[in-house]
Each structure stands twice: as C-alpha cells, then as structure tokens.
C-alpha cells in the first residue's frame, strides 16, 4: 500500500488546540505524542474502507514513513523510512492518519508514565486526574475521551486496549487473533482501535451494524465470575476484588439475561489453577529479550527475566499455551460468553505501580499490575475475542464500572459481543434513569487501592527465576 500526504489541515489539530486552551494541559497530557504536519492517506482514488475520511491517531509503537516513532521513550525516537504492516492496514481502511498517541514504553506495562524515561508528563484521566489512565494504549484512550479524535489505533497484548479504555470510561474491544503464526514465539497481541462509543468502535472494526441491535442466536449461555484468574502462585488463593465492582458485575450479568435470546447465566470457576499463569508469563518475558537498551525500570526487568530463560523452558511454556484453548473449552463446556469485571478496583492513583519499580521492587510492580487486571490476559493467550463495556456514561469524578464479555472459542462472533454490550448499556440506563442511588451503584468516586487487592506474597519470598513478564505488546 502506498501512502501520500495532503496539504489539508486536520480537524484534530484544531480540537487539540481547543482542548489545551480549555484544560491547560499539554498535548501529551491529552494523549497526543505528536501531530503530523500533514495527514497520511491511501493513494487509492476512491477508498471505501470502514474508516474512510476518519482522522485516526496511530499508537507510538508503529512506524509511519517520514514520521518520528518513539516507542514511548525519547531514547528510542527515530524517523522511519517506510510504513510498517499495521500502518499499511490502517491506510487500507481509508483512515487519515494525523498523528501518534502516547504509549507506555514499548507497550510493556499496564500504566503509562513517561516521566520514568524522561518523556515528560503522561496522559491525564478526564474522569479523575488522580486516577491512572492504564496502559499501554492510554494515549489513544485519553485522546478519544477528550474528543481529539473519535477513533484511535491501539493494540492489545494483555489488556492494552480494554484496560485503558475502561480506565477512562470507554468501551474497548480486542478482536479474535492468531496466537501462533510464523514467528518463533506465540504472539498474544492483536491490533485494533479505541472508539468513542460502541457503535463507532464496531465501525472501526467493520463489524456489521445490524447485529449491534439484534441478531443473537437463541439460547445464548453466559458464565459469570468475579474471582480473579491470575495472580501470584505463592498466594493461598486469588487476589481480592473491590466489593462494589463485584456487585455491579453480578447485577450486569442479571441484566444481560433480560435479552430474550439469552438462555441464562451460570456461575463459573476459573478455568485453570492460578499457578498456570506463571508458565504463560515466560512467553511474555521471552518476547522482551530483543528490546533495545536503554530501558526504563519495568521493561528492563522484563528483558532480564526473559534472558534468564532456557530454550527448554520457553518450549514447555509454548506447549502449555498451545493446549490452553482446549483445556478451557473442557472447563467451560456449556458456556458461550464469560462475564467478569474488567479491572479489580477503580484506577489506582498515578504512580501507584511505578513507585514499586522505582524502589527496586520490580516483581511487586508486576504482581500489582496482575492483581488489578486478573482476567483480560486469558483472551490474549487464547486469541479469542473480548469486549469491555462501561455500564454508565462517566461523569466528573465518577468512574464507571466496566464489565468484560469474553467469547469462549468461536461459539459467538464479534457482532454478538457488541449486541450484548449494547443491550447491557441500554438495560443499565433504564434501571438508573432518574435514580441517583442506582446510578451511584455503578460508579466509584475514589482511586482504587492496590494494597487492598492482596497482591503482596504472604509466604517468604522464594526464587522466581522464570520471572512473571507481562509485556502487553511485545
């Protein structure tokens, strides 16, 4: 796919200037790493893709010909000579690529704090400036939430679309993807978008409009749990979940049953022991071994953990990952979609995670990130589709709880997940209309407290030679 530049000014530039003037925030704090002098567009005479004419920010992990890419760190900025495959795919949709969004360094963390690598301030959460914007596609989420663009490119290797979208009160969708391909290592990452609402998100992925409102097959079977799937194998049990988030998720699953084509909802257990995640995390750490130095605290630690792995350990982890979809299918034989919270507590204060690594406690940083996001990674490891849905529209200082709808295998398609999400938002809106108390049941007003999640090991620390890498994109 060839690429051209036009001399047309972008609306995104005007909207960014307006947002800066009204908020007093910098471009980076509004989610924008840089705007291009001119938009990049396809050379096709009449593009007919799903995003024709739509201004889109590209995540700062992608290479756009003639533009700077920084991978979330000034230390790695360079000007690319060519478009990478992801950018070529974006151009094929007809999108106008107008700039780059802020990202966590090499997409390696569930928080985005460029100050750690000398990159200046990070994105500011429009719901509550005290709260983290998550990671690693937080710039994309914030720029969309602030109205700079309606759609932004993002990618998701461990929740990196769904987590930041939930952090700012937006929907987030990870499409189904191939985990095993031509590469040496399995790839948990999928390319995608963050959109301003469910309908725009569906348009970005070219999901048919009609199933957004109907089209569910009769007898859809839902499973529901608020018990975390992932955590520290040294713990006697799973980490904790904020009681209000657990209650809101339970209520959401009950409201989903009001759809006439949903047969019912059944409580489900975690599909595998918590210690199995340690095996999968070897793959994630191994994918960090090629990251170039210098690196910030967490990416550097993940790279070191990956370099310690023997080839036999990586091969064993790959074999275990290959068997995962079949194992989960046996654990959930009668379930089409699993409903969980998206995160275990409200977005924690900015710096809550990174302070651990700055203090040298890198493993605790990883464990805290995992305790906050103990569900999303399952759908990266299997390659199955998943959708995070905010239950109400966010208001100033009121963070909306999001629930996670995860497909089990190919038993349902993306359109079905969006139909469920649309029905759920409408059902919650009817329930809360004119009832402030009901609305408040689906929102939280204070940043989450990661210490209440119980992520710290309770037993004496032992050697974790294999590490627990959790890079979200690499």
Automatic annotation (TrEMBL):
Which Pfam families would you find in this protein's record? Answer: Amidase
Give this protein's Gene Ontology molecular function annotations: amidase activity
Catalyzes what?
A: a monocarboxylic acid amide + H2O = a monocarboxylate + NH4(+)
Give the matching InterPro entries.
Answer: Amidase (IPR000120), Amidase_CS (IPR020556), Amidase_dom (IPR023631), AS_sf (IPR036928)
| Superkingdom to which the source organism belongs | Bacteria
What sequence ranges are listed for the domain Amidase?
A: 45-180, 316-405
The record's SUPFAM superfamilies line, in alphabetical order, gives: Amidase signature (AS) enzymes
Q: Which family does it belong to?
A: Belongs to the amidase family.
The name this protein carries in UniProt is: amidase
Q: Which organism is it from?
A: Corynebacterium terpenotabidum Y-11
């Amino acid at each position: 796919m060839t690429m051209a530049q036009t001399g047309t000014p972008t609306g995104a530039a005007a909207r960014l200037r307006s947002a800066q003037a009204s908020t007093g925030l910098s471009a980076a704090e509004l989610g924008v790493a840089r705007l291009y002098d001119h938009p990049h567009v396809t050379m096709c005479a009449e593009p007919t893709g799903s995003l024709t004419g739509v201004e889109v920010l590209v995540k700062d992990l992608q290479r756009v010909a003639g533009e700077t890419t920084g991978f979330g760190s000034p230390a790695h900025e360079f000007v690319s000579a060519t478009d990478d495959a992801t950018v070529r795919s974006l151009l094929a949709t007809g999108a106008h690529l107008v700039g780059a969004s802020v990202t966590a360094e090499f997409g390696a963390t569930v928080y985005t704090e460029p100050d750690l690598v000398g990159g200046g301030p990070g994105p500011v959460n429009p719901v509550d400036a005290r709260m983290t914007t998550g990671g690693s596609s937080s710039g994309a989420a914030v720029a969309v939430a602030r109205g700079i663009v309606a759609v932004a490119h993002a990618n998701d290797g461990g929740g990196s679309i769904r987590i930041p979208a939930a952090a700012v009160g937006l929907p987030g969708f990870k499409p189904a993807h191939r985990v095993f391909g031509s590469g040496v290592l399995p790839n948990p990452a999928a390319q995608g978008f963050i959109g301003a609402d469910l309908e725009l998100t569906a348009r970005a992925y070219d999901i048919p409009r009609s199933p957004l409102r109907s089209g569910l097959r009769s007898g859809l079977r839902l499973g529901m749990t608020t018990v975390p799937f992932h955590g520290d194998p040294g713990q006697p049990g799973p980490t904790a979940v904020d009681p209000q988030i657990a209650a809101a998720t339970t209520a959401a699953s009950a409201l989903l049953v009001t759809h006439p084509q949903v047969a019912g909802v059944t409580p489900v257990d975690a599909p595998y022991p918590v210690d199995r995640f340690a095996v999968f995390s070897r793959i994630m750490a191994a994918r960090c071994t090629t990251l170039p130095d210098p690196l910030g605290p967490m990416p550097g630690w993940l790279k070191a953990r990956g370099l310690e792995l023997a080839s036999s350990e990586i091969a064993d982890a790959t074999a275990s990952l290959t068997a995962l979809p079949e194992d989960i299918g046996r654990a959930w034989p009668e379930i089409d979609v699993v409903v969980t919270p998206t995160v275990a507590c409200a977005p924690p204060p900015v710096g809550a995670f990174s302070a651990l690594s700055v203090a040298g406690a890198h493993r605790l940083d990883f464990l805290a990130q995992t305790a906050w996001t103990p569900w999303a990674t399952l759908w990266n490891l299997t390659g199955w589709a998943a959708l995070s849905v905010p239950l109400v529209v966010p208001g100033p200082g009121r963070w909306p709880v999001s629930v996670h709808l995860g497909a089990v295998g190919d038993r349902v398609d993306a359109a079905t997940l969006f139909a469920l999400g649309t029905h759920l938002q409408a059902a919650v809106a009817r329930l809360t209309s004119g009832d402030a108390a009901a609305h408040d049941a689906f929102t939280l007003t204070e940043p989450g407290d990661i210490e209440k999640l119980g992520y710290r090991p309770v037993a004496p620390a032992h050697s974790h030679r294999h590490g627990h890498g959790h890079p979200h994109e690499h």
